[in-house]
User: Which sequence fits this backbone?
C-alpha cells in the first residue's frame, strides 16, 4: 500500500491538537496553533485524525 | 478516497463558528457520514434546530434547513413531518435546548413516536450563553451559575427518552467518532422516534471550569468511562456507577404517528 497523503487545510485548523494526541504513529505535531505533519512517511492511514478533527481541517487520501 | 464532506456543505461557510476542539464539529461530521450511508436525498431531507451552539449546525449544510426558536425544534419538525410524511426529518440541538427549555416538546415527540431522528449533543452546559448549568450538568460540577458546585441531580437524556416513549434510543460520545455515524444511521433507518444522545465536549465553558487541562483530556475521559451495552449487561449497578453506557439502549416497534394520523383522516373522510 502506498503511504497515504495527508492534506491539511490551514485556514480551517484551529489548533485544538486532538489529531496530534490520537495519531498512533506520531505523524503530527503542533507548530504554534497550526498542525504540521512532521513524519508523513509514518502514516498508516488509520483515519483517527480525520475522524476526530472537529474542523474539517485534515483529510487522509489513500488512493 | 477521503470522505467527501463538501458535497453536503453550503459553499463558503467554513471555518465554522465553534471554538477550537468543540465536539459539535465531530458530531456534525458523523451526521454527514450517516446521511451519506443512508443515501438521503437533499431535497427530501429537512434538518431542524432550535438555539444554541449545537443548533447552529443546520446553517452549514446544503439540505432543507430550519433554525427555529429556543427549545422548539421538535415542534417545528413535527409540523414538517405531518405536512410531508415522506420527508426525512432530522433534529439537532443541545442539552439545554432539548431538555431544559424544550423538555416538553422533547418528551411529547417521543411519546407520539413520530418518525424522525433527533441527535442531541449533550455537552452538560449552556455553551452559547457562557456556561450556565443545564439539567445535564453533573451534580457537584461548576458552571457560571453554580460557582460553588451544582446541587441538582442530572437528567439522563437517554432514560428520559425511553421513559417518554421513543422507540429507538442510543448513546455514544464525541470520542467514539465512528460509532456516531453508525448509531445515527440506525436511527434514520428506524421507523419512529429515534434519539441519539452524543456526550460532547465544550472546552470553553465547561472544561475550563471543571479542571480539564485540555479538550484532549475531555475526550480521554469519554474513552475511559464508556462501556458498551453488552458489557454493561454483565456488570453490577455499583460497577456501572459513573460509567457511560454506549450503543443501542432501546429498540421497539410501535405504531408511527403520521400513519396513525392518516388513519384518522381516512375515518373522518368516510363519514
Ligand atoms: C427563549 C430564549 N431563552 C433563552 C435564550 C438564551 N440561550 C441561547 S442558547 C441557550 C442555551 C443553549 O444550550 P444548549 O442547547 O445546551 O447548546 P450549546 O450552546 O451548549 O451547544 C440559551 C439559554 C434564548 N435564545 N431564547
Ligand atoms: S491517518 Fe492515522 S497514522 Fe495517519 S496521520 Fe492520521 S492518525 Fe496518524
Ligand atoms: S484536529 Fe483539526 S483543528 Fe484540531 S489541530 Fe488537528 S487539524 Fe487542527
Ligand atoms: S462555547 Fe462550548 S459549545 Fe459553544 S462553540 Fe464553544 S466549545 Fe462549543
Ligand atoms: Mg449544551
Assistant:
Amino acid at each position: 500500500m502506498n503511504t497515504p497523503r495527508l492534506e491539511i487545510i490551514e485556514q480551517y485548523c484551529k489548533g485544538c491538537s486532538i489529531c496530534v494526541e490520537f495519531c498512533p504513529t506520531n505523524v503530527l505535531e503542533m507548530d504554534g496553533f497550526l498542525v504540521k505533519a512532521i513524519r508523513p512517511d509514518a502514516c498508516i492511514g488509520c483515519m483517527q485524525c480525520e475522524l476526530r478533527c472537529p474542523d474539517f481541517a485534515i483529510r487522509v487520501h489513500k488512493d | 478516497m477521503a470522505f467527501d464532506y463538501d458535497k453536503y456543505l453550503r459553499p463558503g461557510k467554513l471555518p465554522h463558528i465553534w471554538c477550537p476542539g468543540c465536539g459539535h464539529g465531530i458530531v456534525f461530521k458523523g451526521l454527514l457520514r450517516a446521511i451519506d450511508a443512508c443515501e438521503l436525498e437533499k431535497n427530501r431531507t429537512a434538518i431542524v434546530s432550535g438555539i444554541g451552539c449545537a443548533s447552529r449546525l443546520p446553517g452549514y449544510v446544503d439540505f432543507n434547513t430550519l433554525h427555529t426558536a429556543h427549545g422548539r425544534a421538535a415542534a417545528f419538525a413535527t409540523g414538517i413531518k405531518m405536512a410531508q410524511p415522506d420527508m426525512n426529518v432530522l433534529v439537532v440541538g443541545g442539552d439545554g435546548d432539548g431538555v431544559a427549555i424544550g423538555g416538553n416538546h422533547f418528551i411529547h415527540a417521543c411519546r407520539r413516536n413520530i418518525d424522525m431522528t433527533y441527535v442531541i449533543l449533550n455537552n452538560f452546559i449552556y455553551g452559547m450563553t457562557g456556561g450556565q448549568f443545564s439539567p445535564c450538568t453533573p451534580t457537584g460540577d461548576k458552571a457560571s451559575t453554580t460557582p460553588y458546585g451544582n446541587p441538582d441531580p442530572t437528567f439522563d437524556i437517554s432514560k428520559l427518552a425511553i421513559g417518554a416513549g421513543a422507540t429507538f434510543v442510543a448513546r455514544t460520545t464525541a470520542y467514539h467518532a465512528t460509532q456516531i455515524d453508525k448509531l445515527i444511521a440506525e436511527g434514520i433507518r428506524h421507523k419512529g422516534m429515534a434519539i441519539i444522545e452524543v456526550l460532547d465536549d465544550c472546552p470553553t465553558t465547561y472544561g475550563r471550569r471543571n479542571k480539564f487541562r485540555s479538550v484532549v483530556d475531555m475526550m480521554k475521559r469519554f474513552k475511559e468511562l464508556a462501556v458498551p451495552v453488552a458489557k454493561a449487561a454483565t456488570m453490577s449497578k455499583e460497577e456501572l456507577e459513573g460509567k457511560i453506557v454506549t450503543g443501542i439502549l432501546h429498540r421497539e416497534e410501535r405504531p408511527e404517528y403520521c400513519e396513525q394520523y392518516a388513519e384518522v383522516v381516512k375515518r373522518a373522510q368516510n363519514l
In short: The CA atoms of residues 12 and 56 of chain A lie 7 Å apart. Helices of chain A lie at 18-22, 48-52. The first helix of chain A runs from residue 18 to 22. The pocket of thiamine diphosphate (ligand 1) is lined by residues B 51-54, 70, 93-97, 123, 125-129, 134, 202 (CB under 6 Å).
